[in-house]
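Q: what sequence does this backbone want?
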């Protein structure tokens, strides 16, 4: 069946439209005539939740909330030193009861926790948290005019990076939440705010037994694969082999596939020679061969550099715009005709594990989606750009202007969150920058009414992550979860219809999943009709997407409609 891709007839000025839509929303929120209707807070509150002052009309996902959390450390404490931690929780619209969770990694401890909060210590598997998490938790009341202010004192007990995170959640609605973070690097004599990263970081030996995150998905090389292991080398050549790994947020050692590998000759004169490059395979492994003639005599003095990039996507530092690179120790004077096994490596700095995990989350999306580009009908691929740093507070959103995902430091702990934002990037790519307008989208909630455009763009982005991960559950950093498949008519806390992103998302899940509930009997291939209709048209809403699906000749009869109806969408 021929699928028309009517981009020219549907094309519209995406960024201009988005600016106009968001400006209209801001005018409405300010009470100016001509703006969009005021957005109600979750839980039936009719007071207006204003987006943060830094809201940018080029951001698809400002993550504005009805709560705002601010953290301040009086100083960056040296080892054994203390600092005052001030926390402020305010409610943008009305006073509300709030639950607060303040977390310290193993490198910091409470000298005195904020008054009214109870403390506990538990094991943590997140690498950068150092094996333990110190918490202070409790409830209070926050308002716009009467913020909840707390103070405590922390002590630095280990050198290295440390992040303090506080999360406030409304007692009335768990989706009404906000988090704040502050980062320090503790030293024995000097400490500083932030977590600095060099242009190249050291790699360390990795544990054996690394596994793939999603073994059920076939590996798709992002670039031509490196030479297979066991390649016979000529007398004047040699090879290097090994694997690249990381430790994920659950403490499991994983392979990192499709990562850039470069083999260098360590030159005593300071100008290292690039010998060859490639990408890691499905098992994180590589074998790369090179001319072994060293101008200084003997064999090459080899080291390997890994990077969070390939030609189709990159995890890069938001400031330097460079990928994260990691170098192994030098293997001196590699014999000609041999293969030097450098072994298994991972980042030496635990604070950088999250960057490699984010890279692997995007790799999961790459393995799942059809085609040789993110937009399967492109002949020249657009590279996916993801900005992340171990101390980033610039997230979580996709920038239409910069065509880049922006992630906060903790976001890679939630692969679904990484893929959700990358889903926005992919839609912008497929729609040739004619991104749909999405009013009433700041703030937006999975379970609440927003607008047809917001529900479609946000629902699709999450659906991409759900389909790639094979898990119909949204799992946020910190452990909060939301079932995305089960809700139906009458589910407590859920609004109804195709202006609710969770209903659009649930409909798309139920159209393809095989774990059917009563009223859900659809089992189509997610990479079939749903994906092909997405690729073939620029849809501005789920209703329009459904019309495009019908125009493409796919089933829109009683069976699929019943799966939509199960999710309260009645067409």
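A:
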């Amino acid at each position: 069946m021929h699928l028309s891709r009517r981009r020219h007839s549907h094309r519209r000025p995406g960024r201009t439209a988005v600016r106009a839509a968001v400006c209209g929303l801001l005018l409405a929120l300010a009470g100016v005539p001509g703006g969009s209707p005021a957005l109600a807070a979750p839980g039936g509150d009719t007071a207006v939740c204003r987006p943060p002052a830094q809201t940018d009309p080029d951001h698809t996902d400002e993550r504005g909330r009805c709560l705002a959390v601010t953290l301040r450390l009086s100083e960056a404490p040296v080892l054994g030193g203390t600092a005052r931690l001030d926390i402020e929780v305010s409610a943008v619209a009305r006073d509300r009861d709030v639950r607060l969770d303040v977390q310290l990694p193993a490198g910091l401890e409470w000298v005195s926790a904020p008054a009214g909060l109870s403390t506990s210590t538990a094991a943590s598997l997140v690498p950068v948290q150092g094996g333990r998490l110190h918490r202070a938790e409790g409830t209070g009341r926050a308002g716009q005019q009467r913020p909840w202010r707390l103070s405590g004192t922390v002590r630095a007990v280990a050198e290295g990076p440390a992040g303090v995170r506080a999360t406030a959640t409304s007692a009335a609605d768990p989706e009404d939440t906000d988090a704040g973070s502050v980062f320090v690097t503790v030293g024995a004599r000097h400490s500083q705010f932030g977590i600095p990263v060099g242009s190249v970081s050291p790699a360390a030996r990795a544990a054996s037994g690394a596994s793939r995150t999603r073994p059920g998905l076939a590996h798709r090389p992002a670039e031509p694969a490196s030479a297979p292991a066991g390649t016979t080398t000529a007398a004047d050549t040699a090879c290097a082999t090994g694997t690249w790994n990381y430790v994920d947020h659950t403490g499991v050692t994983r392979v990192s596939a499709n990562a850039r590998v470069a083999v260098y000759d360590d030159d005593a004169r300071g100008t290292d020679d690039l010998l060859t490059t490639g990408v890691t395979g499905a098992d994180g492994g590589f074998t790369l061969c090179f001319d072994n003639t060293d101008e200084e005599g003997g064999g090459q003095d080899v080291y390997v550099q890994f990077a969070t990039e390939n030609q189709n996507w990159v995890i890069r530092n938001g400031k330097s715009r460079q990928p994260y690179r990691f170098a192994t120790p030098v293997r001196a004077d590699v014999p000609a005709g041999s293969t030097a096994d450098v072994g298994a490596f991972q980042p030496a700095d635990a604070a950088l594990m999250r960057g490699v995990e984010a890279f692997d989350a995007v790799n999961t999306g790459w393995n799942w989606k059809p085609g040789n580009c993110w937009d399967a009908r492109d002949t020249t691929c657009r590279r996916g750009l993801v900005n992340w740093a171990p101390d980033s507070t610039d997230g979580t959103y996709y920038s239409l202007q910069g065509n880049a995902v922006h992630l906060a430091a903790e976001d890679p702990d939630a692969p679904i969150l990484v893929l959700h934002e990358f889903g926005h990037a992919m839609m912008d790519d497929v729609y040739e920058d004619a991104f749909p307008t999405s009013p009433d989208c700041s703030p937006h909630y999975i379970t609440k009414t927003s607008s047809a455009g917001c529900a479609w763009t946000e629902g699709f982005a999450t659906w991409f992550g759900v389909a790639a991960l094979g898990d119909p559950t949204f799992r946020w950093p910190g452990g909060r979860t939301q079932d995305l498949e089960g809700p139906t008519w009458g589910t407590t806390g859920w609004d109804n219809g195709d202006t609710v992103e969770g209903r659009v998302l649930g409909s798309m899940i139920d159209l393809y999943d095989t774990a059917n509930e009563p009223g859900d009997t659809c089992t189509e291939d997610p990479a079939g009709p749903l994906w092909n209709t997405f690729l073939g048209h620029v849809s501005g809403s789920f209703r329009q997407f459904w019309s495009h699906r019908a125009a493409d000749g796919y089933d829109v009869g009683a069976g699929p409609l019943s799966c939509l109806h199960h999710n309260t969408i009645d067409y």
